[in-house]
């Protein structure tokens, strides 16, 4: 799945096991063997690991037409942004701490030119190119919504998806989103999708 990410992402971390001491601030998914927690917590202990993960996501390269979602390795710092409220980028890492995807909340998740809406949290994300269509986004997306609910307490969730990206559209429709409008964005047509909080 790939919803719009301006110049990259480093969004939620999946890692560990239920008894590994990572429960604080995270969500455990026992069947899928991953843990979701904010990367910014780990970054305080090891900023070089956070930079390494950001650089990894920034260097991802997708096949056309998804190449609009390619990152820019020279701008990996863009993937490090997290504000005091928790908006920004997070990594998705597997149990071996390997980055397999990313998600973001807030301004970083919006298509340029789109405004924030009070009470609505914007969500963006993507899966590493070699792992797309392996069911990762389908299993992770509910936990990302749960994380956003407990962190931001929104009245609604919003995402922007390039209209050609049918995989992401299907994922969001299955997660309870509906198309609110279609508009011309940078380089292509986008769908604004909403889900009640």
Description of the molecule:
- With 197 residues, the chain is an alpha+beta fold.
- Helix content is 23%, strand content 28%.
- The strands form two sheets. A six-stranded mixed sheet has the order 4-5-6-7-9-8, with helices on both faces. Strands 1-3-2 form a three-stranded antiparallel sheet.
- The two termini are 21 Å apart.
- Residues 1-45 have low confidence and may be disordered.
**Spatial sequence of strands, sheet with the most strands:** 4-5-6-7-9-8
**What is the helix content?**
10-25%
Structural class: alpha+beta
| Low-pLDDT regions | 1-45
Q: Tell me, briefly, the overall form.
A: globular
Mean pLDDT, all residues: 76
The radius of gyration computed from the alpha-carbon positions, rounded to a whole number of angstroms, is 15 Å
Order of helices and strands: EEEHHEEEHEHEE
Number of helices: 4
Distance between the termini: 21 Å
How does the major sheet shape up?
6 strands, mixed
Oligomer: single chain
* Beta-strand residue percentage: 25-35%
What's the β-strand tally? 9
